[in-house]
Structures are given as C-alpha cells and as structure tokens.
Target: Small RNA 2'-O-methyltransferase
Amino acid sequence: MLLTITTTRYPATDLGYLLHKHPAKVQSFPFTAGDAHVFYPEATEEKCTAALLLDLDPVKLTRKSSPGSNDFALEPYVNDRPYVASSFMSAAISQAFSSAMNGRCKDKPELVEIAFPFEVSLSVLPVNGGEPLLRNLFEPLGYEVSVQSFPLDTQYPAWGQSRYFQVTLRNTLPLRLLLSQLYVLMPVCDNDKHYFVGEHEIEKLMEKGREWLETHPAKELITRRYLKHLGPLTRQALNIIMKDEDVPGPEKLPAEKIRLHDLRLQTVRDLLLEHNVSSVADMGCGEGKLLKLLMEKNAFSRILGMDVSYHALEIAREKLKLDRLPELQKKRIGLIQGSLAYKDKRLSGFEAATLVEVIEHLDMPRLAVLEKAVFEYARPQLVIITTVNAEYNVKYEALSEGAFRHKDHRFEWTRAEFESWANKVATQFGYTVEFKPLGEYDEAVGAPSQLALFSIVAA
Model:
C-alpha cells in the first residue's frame, strides 16, 4: 500500500527537512511482516512529494495473527492486509516519520508550527461505513475529501461497490498534525487493528488526538473503533476526552446505538446543511446531542428541541450550557416539553423537522397521530426520520431471534416495511421521500439504521 504527501508551499523541498528524509535518497526500514520504504517521486522548490510504500510479506503475516482476529480458519492466509492502508500503515508512519509526528525538526525548527498546503493520497483505504463515514471523519477537521470507489467484481456489477477507496485529502495544517490525524483515523476507517489493544492505546490516542479529538463531532465513534470496541478501555478514554459530559455505559444505551449515534446525528446535520435549512425543530431531542451539533453551525439561525421527558431536557440544558450562552446565541435555541401525540402550534413555522430514533418507541395508534402532528399540522418543508433496520439484528450475537434492540421499542421495521410506511405517509400528506442507509452496510441485510428524507411537494 502507498501513502503520498505533496506540498506546493515554496520552497516545497522544506518537506524533506520536516520529515527528516533526504529527497535524493531511498530509505528502507525493517517492519512487522515486511519493509517500509520512503522516497520522493518529485522534489522541486515548486512541488515536493514524499511517498511511504509498505511492502508486507503475506507469509510473515500468517505468523503475526493478532488476538481477537477473525475466527475464520483461513483468515491469516486469505485477507486484504498486504494491499490496504490499515493499522500497519499507521505503525509505519509512526516508525518512519516519528520525528515529524512528534513536532521535531533539527535543521529548521521554525517549520514545525507552519501550516502547509498538503495533498495526501492513500492507495487503497478500507472503510467500514463507506464514503459517508469517511467524510464524517475527515471533513470536520477541514479536509477536502475526494474518493474513487471500486466494484466488488468488474465482471458482476450487480454485486455493488466494495469497501475500498482511493482517497485524496487536501488541507492546510502543520505536518505533525496531519500525520497524527492519519495515524488515528486510518485504523478507525478500517475498524480493525493488527496488534493487541491494551491500556497503552489510550495513552497513544490521548497524545495523538490532544489538539483535535475533544472537539470532533465523531469523537465517540473514533474512540470506540480505535480501541476495538473494548468497553472498559473505551469508557475510560471517553471519560478523559469528554470530561464534564455524561459518558453512556452499556447499562444506559445499547451497544449498537453507542457506535452509530454520532454517525446518525452527523448525517442528519449534513443533510440539513445540504438543503440550506436555517430553522430546525428536533422532535424527540433527548439530551440534546443533535442540538449541540446544530449550534456549532451558524447556518442554523433558529433551533428548537422538544421532548416528552423533563429530565432529558434538563440534561440537554446543562450540556448546551444555556445559562452561560451569550444573548445572541440564546435567541437561536429553545427547549420545550411536549408530545407528538398532540397538535402543537409551537412546532409550526420551521423549515425542517428531525426525528432521530423516535418512531420505534410509539405503538401504531400513536404513530398515526404523530403522522398528522408532523406532516399535516407542523408541516415543515423537510422532514428527516431515522429508525433501526430489523434485518440487521441477525448480526448481533447477543440478541435472541425476534428480540428488539431496546426494551422500549414497540416495533422494529425491515427496509421494505419502513419504505412502505414512508411512501404511504408521503403520498397522504403531499411529500416526496428518498432513503439512505446509516452505518456499515452489509449486502445481505443492509445497514444497522435507515433514514427517510421527506421533501414537501411544491404547490
């Protein structure tokens, strides 16, 4: 697998000083199950490219199987590890570019904190969660993301696209920060690591993510994946990162929702931004996590959170720090207690409404009332609804057949059932609707969650 880093900041050959690697030399390093090579395909004062080539030996890999690896008997022999940018590439970055990643530059120390315009190319990156997840990880950090996907088999287009991408990232930032973010996020994309994960991994995550992870909207997802979903380690790390926030444990939230929660909320927020929405009512806002994401974007000038639970609203109030907000910010957001089982004029006049994992908590008679409350009485131009995908339940080993993911769920729909309901509602109330999967997509059973985007039909 190949990683290239290109800059055009004059003189571009300063990249060689930062990386502690001379552009005129090819340098090689013995590495776990192979070798890493650093060379420069191009090195002029106008443009300089450094390449890190990782050459893994498939035979050596069979002797390096990690704890917790796939139970498939041939997995050490039949895998993609020699061909993709995974945790092996992260380890190679740490070894080959350790001085640069730690912010040391012997000959030109003044370069360490300078933001360079960089273009990074990764061939090829596995992403469990597809392009939406990839963008949700890198775009909040200021990256421009370009991707090329690959089919599972060019002979059989109907099989669909693979989880592999040719990725190009562009950003202007210090090199040490770029390398630290790549180091953390590559194994997060892959959702796997080739080595044992223990408490020392928390220290590495805190060190590499100290300048950006705490404010990243997907910090929970990043932490869980980086620590291979090991509950005790994940909770310990999140307690450090989130500090004053209440970190949900398994007794408070099902594991599936913990992993998907950030992705759901970011997808909803990004759809609202994409449709140039300025006023949003989050119906069933809970403890205000979506509201917090919306508050970070100035595009949303009017935000309302409504929930039936007064306790949840109090938590939301504390997390949003409403009492300490500047007056102009306070005017942007409101919290109200209410129920979608009733017509509520306070919900009228918003361009968009969001219901994230709400409908499955209602029995059918109340769901019918909700339809009228949202689509007939409130009648926003845009409605976004997410719900779990029942077909995906077979992938949860701890879930018995026919059981629901949460004890408060009244139903869980398959993709066909959700689409049938959404199409009926759209037709009845004068909307169009489109659907999106949420989470890691499985060809047989789909994604863990599903999203419906309703748009009002123009008169």
Remarks:
- Residues 197-247 form one domain.
- Confidence is low (pLDDT under 50) at residues 64-74, 244-258.
- The chain has three domains: 2-192, 197-247, 255-456.
- The CA atoms of residues 120 and 158 lie 31 Å apart.
